[in-house]
Each structure stands twice: as C-alpha cells, then as structure tokens.
Design brief:
The structure is a single chain. The protein has 458 residues and is mainly alpha-helical. It is elongated and about 85 Å long. The longest helix has 24 residues, at 402-425. It has 22 helices and no strands.
Length: 458
C-alpha cells in the first residue's frame, strides 16, 4: 500500500509500477499474488489510464502465467486477483465491500482453516475497487504545488530501484534505461544498446586534431556498454547528467528512430532539454566526415518538438560564429548538417539571415570554404529540381529579406558557380553532379536576383 500511495502522490511513475507487477508475475508465488491483489485494488484503474498498452501486456502475462499453473493449480486469492485484472482491463470498478469480503475469504483459505490463526484480509483501502488509493483532489493539488514532480522516480525499473550499493544520482536514468521498455519483468529479453558510433566517439575523446576515426554514426555495431559510453562522454567534456544521458542515447542507438525515442523519454526539466540538441550537434561535428544519421535524428526531434527546432537553429548560429577556430573537418560536417536540414525543409532557407554575404570579399578562407561547401551540398541534397526551386522561391518572396536575396544570389553567381566548375576540372566533382548543381544554381540565382525584394533592396 505504501508503494500504491507513492504512485498516487506522483512520487513513483507508472513504468516503475508496471515493473513491480512484472516481477511479481514472473515469480507468481502466493505472497506475490497477494501483493498484486493489493496493488491492483489500490491503483489498478489509475495504471490502466496511465498506460493502457502496458496494462494489456500485463493482463496477457498474468493469464499466461495462470494458464501454466493448470486446472486446480490456482489458489482462491489468485482466482480473485484474475477477476480483478479482468475488471480493470474492462475499466469496470469493483464493489469495495465485495472486494473486502473476497480478500477476507482468500486470507482465510491461505490460513488453511486453522481457527487459532486469525484471518487477516488485505487492506484495500477506501474508495472503489481498483482505485482504493486514489488521493483527494485537494491533496493532489497541494502535492503538485509542493514540487512533487521534481522528485518523481521515472524510467526506473524495480530491479534498479532495489539494486544495492547504488552511487551518485542513480535515480537519474541513463539513456539505455530510458528505452529499456516499461515492463522489464514481463519481457523475455531486454533491449541492449549497441554502442553506435562508439569508435568515432572514442577517437573524438582524444581531441579534434587527432581524430581519424571511421564513419561512426548509428549502427556501428561496436557493442559498447552504457558504462563505456559514459567514459567517452567524460572524454568529450559532457560534464552534466543531462549531457551524458543525451550522449549515451545518441551514440548507443541502432538508428535515429531508437535514438529519438530514448531522447524523448529522458526526464529532463526546463532548460535541460536544450542539451539534447547541443549534444547532437557536437557529436555530429566530431565525426571524420558528415554522417546523415545526425541530420535525420535532428529532423525527427524538430518535427516532434518546436523547442528542439528553435534550439537547433540557435545552435547552428552559434557554430557559424566560431568558424575561425574550427578545423576543416569540423566545417565540412557543419556544412553537411546545415545542408541536410535546409534541403529536407526542417529549417527554412531564411535561417542564413545572420550571414553577411555582401562582405564575402573580406571573408577569411575558412568562411568562404564553409559556405561554398554548404551551398554545394544544399544544391545536391534536394530530392528534386522542384524542391530546390521551391526553397529558393520561398526566400525570394520574403520582402523583408531583399538584401539577403540579392547578396546570396550574387554569392552563388560569383563565388560558388566558378568554384564548382574548377572542382570538376580538378576531378573533385563528377560531371553529372556538376551539371545538376549548375542547373539548380542558375535557377536559384535567377529567383533571388529577380525577386521584387531584391530589386527594391538594390
């Protein structure tokens, strides 16, 4: 009942409660059945409302366990518990008096009919069966105002909760725990992180200049454990729990879908959620060459959360301010990431408005290097010529950005086009890619320079 009231008060999350029920189902001894009956009588309906899918899995597991016991293999208490499970599954509240009578009968049966031992019924509390531990609205409001959400144990399994010799902030789940499933006690196998891009991260931990790692990214198959990834995170100066958890989720996932799910499950509060995108961008820029995994992951996060999308834009702006101190490898990764996000319409082309293309004649070689490669990769990243034309057309239609349209159009004409031809002459660009780039560049240049906004700005 203590655990049930902790759940009702918001101190324990539903996933932990399902983990407890899963462990009890796995053992299914008489004492375990008694505890399950108490928990379900207390907060069964709440758990169903919090996660119907997990409740469905639990019901299936209980029935499977009961079927394995065979005819006549169930005690009276287990039969009562199965009836309650069915009622909760169907969202049907049980009569409290009936629940107490049934619990008393079960307790008497468990005592073996020995009259010298008093039959003690399970405490099902007040209220209706399946929701006996539900707190009063006034008390819940007071708990919320007291900041109970800040101490909620979320994404923590029962096995981890009772694990001895825990150290540090053990209640702050690692990213692997965050996606390990809501019912670890019911699952035959646990999901293990494969350590994607661990080799790349290991090299990156030794410093930018010495990093000569492989392709990295998701699914690298190095099989690094969470502990190893946390060591790599320390080497990359991931100094906070939020940054370390985000790093493990990103680098320890098989693909961007798994990584996105893990990141969204992290119990981050307020400004901590911004660390997710910052860590993602930093991991991307540590690669030896641009890995599309990071672009797809950033696109998923931006699609799910407007906050992540805004943070992504500001992170890119911050990186553009630090071009002078970046190695060419890092600039190429940045160019690839920006081109991916613009070419897939995750961010609008107007995001480049902080860049003064009018002053390109006074740029450093690194600035010119970055923007030539960014625009080259952008032109090739569009799925079709129509998409490329649509992106530049949207920018050209913005009256307030006439100066940017004119400057960007001239930069494409004078700095990017001739450079692309020189790249092809040097054998660094295939003729087919050159033709496609030049065709899209010419159309973009025409749209930008002939737009009403550009003419008015000129």
């Amino acid at each position: 009942m203590l655990l049930a009231y902790c759940y009702s008060a918001g101190m324990v999350a539903a996933d932990c409660m399902y983990s407890v029920l899963g462990e009890l189902t796995r053992r299914f001894a008489e004492s375990d059945v008694a505890m399950m009956l108490t928990l379900l009588n207390a907060v069964g309906l709440q758990l169903r409302s919090a996660d119907p899918a997990a409740m469905k899995d639990f019901v299936m597991a209980v029935h499977s366990r009961a079927a394995a016991a065979g005819p006549g293999g169930l005690s009276k208490r287990a039969e009562i518990m199965l009836e309650l499970v069915v009622d909760i599954k169907n969202n049907r509240a049980r009569d409290v008096k009936a629940s107490r009578s049934a619990a008393s009968a079960a307790a008497a049966a468990a005592a073996g009919g020995d009259k010298s031992k008093p039959a003690v019924a399970q405490n099902v509390g007040g209220g209706r069966g399946g929701a006996a531990a539900v707190l009063q609205p006034g008390l819940l409001k007071w708990l919320k105002a007291s900041g109970v959400d800040d101490v909620t144990l979320a994404n923590i399994s029962w096995a981890k909760l009772v694990q001895p010799n825990k150290k540090g902030m053990w209640w702050h789940p690692a990213a692997t725990d965050a996606a390990a499933g809501l019912l670890p006690g019911l699952l035959a196998e646990h999901m293990h992180s494969s350590g994607a891009a661990a080799a790349a991260a290991a090299a990156a931990a030794d410093g930018d200049d010495e990093y000569e790692g492989g392709s990295g990214g998701a699914g690298a198959g190095t099989g690094a454990s969470a502990a190893q990834l946390l060591q790599l995170a320390a080497g990359m100066r991931m100094t906070t729990d939020a940054r370390r958890a985000a790093f493990v989720a990103i680098m320890g996932s098989e693909d961007c879908a798994e990584a996105c799910e893990k990141l969204l499950r992290l119990p981050l509060k307020g400004d901590q959620s911004r660390e997710v995108v910052r860590v993602l961008v930093e991991c991307c820029l540590q690669e030896s060459r641009y890995n599309p995994y990071y672009g797809h992951l950033a696109a998923r996060l931006a699609a799910v959360s407007k906050s992540h999308k805004v943070t992504l834009q500001y992170c890119i702006w911050d990186q553009w301010k630090e071009v002078a101190g970046c190695a060419p490898r890092r600039l190429l990764c940045l160019a690839g990431l920006v081109a991916h996000l613009l070419g897939s319409f995750v961010l609008p082309l107007s995001v480049v408005k902080p860049i003064d293309f009018d002053a390109c004649a006074t740029w450093t070689s690194k600035e010119t290097f970055l923007w030539r490669h960014t625009l080259q990769q952008l032109l090739t990243s569009f799925a079709s010529d129509a998409d490329a034309e649509s992106a530049f057309s949207r920018l050209a239609q913005q009256q307030a950005l006439g100066g940017l349209c004119k400057a960007l159009g001239l930069f494409l004409k004078l700095r990017v086009g001739p450079w692309l031809v020189a790249q092809a002459d040097a054998g660094l660009l295939k003729q087919q890619s050159l033709d496609s780039c030049l065709l899209r560049l010419a159309r973009a240049e025409k749209l930008l320079l002939s737009s009403t906004a550009a003419v008015l700005a000129g």
